[in-house]
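> run fold Gustatory receptor
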Amino acid sequence: MAAKVRSLLSKQKSFFRKIYSFEIPDSKEFDETVCNKIRQTERLTIFFQIVRNGLNQSDSVEVDTFGFRRFNWMDWLISILCLINAIRCGILTQNTNDSVAVYLGNIFFRDAKGYVLLLWCLVATIGLGFFREWLMTLEAKGKFKVLSVWNVCRNGFIPVNLQMNELNTKRFRFTVYLVTLFVYWTMLATPLFCIFLYLSLLLNNPWAYQIHGLTLFSLLWLPVFILSLSTLLNTIMGFGWYIMCSLYFHLYRLRDLIDCADFLLNNLKHGLFAEKDMQLFCSQIIHHLNDFEFASHRLRYVLLGYFSVIALTGNFDVFIGLILRVHTVSFCNLLATAGFIILLSVGIFGLVFGSFIAQLGTLTIRLHQLSCRNTLSTQSASKVLEIMDRAAGPYNGLKIGDFVTLEKQFFILFTLENISLLMLFTCNIGPLLN
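> ok
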């Protein structure tokens, strides 16, 4: 009777597992789909001149005295359009002449608080423009070779090439697919969203129906605005795609090390442990930690710039949408929602990649268990102690500049800092604009 009950319960358990379990896709067709999406996203980033070489980054410096864009007409066009849009917004913020406003296509014509949005557009264009120029210069100097560690994934996710086991390879492939799919469609939708936003703001202005020249010149300035804004926004998304996939690659390789440690512990229980395996495992840990620390050190200022630009963008969006309440109610709600989403995404980024330190702690525990349960030689024991001391050090983790190491508590600290920054904006800038 008891055997029948156990059999019935096991069948029910397997039935509910099949219904509610989430399985990672595993097929050659899915692998080819992911690779195609990676190649498409890479070509899209090259088209928008986010990077010039895609995943084919190298240390070779090929910059002449003229600069990195000498023969690149697309990059020249984007930079000139961004400069023109910044000059246009700067003139409109200080302009009091209606004729100049009409000729420059001011979609906030005679709006009491329209100059706030123009000023915000000016600051965003200048800030994102300088950030893009900086990224292009760093790439031309060969600083982004660390982003090409996962370029083998363009031709397939092979565990041997990725130095992961099969399960972690599937997890990494599925994560890359989700991130790539989101970034790809977001980059394609950004120009359409900018067009919709520009036209909706123009049509909500009642003067556009009375002054036909305002409508005409606003539509003539539409390509300049769309190309400059969509390119700058896609720079944040596209280059963030390279960074996130590279960091995910190192994170899953660390998880693979923990799986290897569990495998060695299991062999130790069954008497199949060899000291040669331990030495090979230690060398593998050192190799992976060196790669990640090099990538973290090389990207620390880029990540600091990312966090600064995105955090300020989210804060100003919330401030303009909720505190100042400029323009229409729907536009303010859209701006505030975008600001909250931006701040939340940065916090989630810190929460996900802050787990690197937790994974290092788990790896330290596994090494401690291996060293306690087995008699190691002096050389192997000293190597294990060295790795444990290195993994437990406060300098490990993802660097944000030279003074912050990303941890799981970053989500809370980032939220509190942004709340205090919004209060600072409200108390000091709000009365001046009103």
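Residues 57 and 145 are 5 Å apart (CA to CA).
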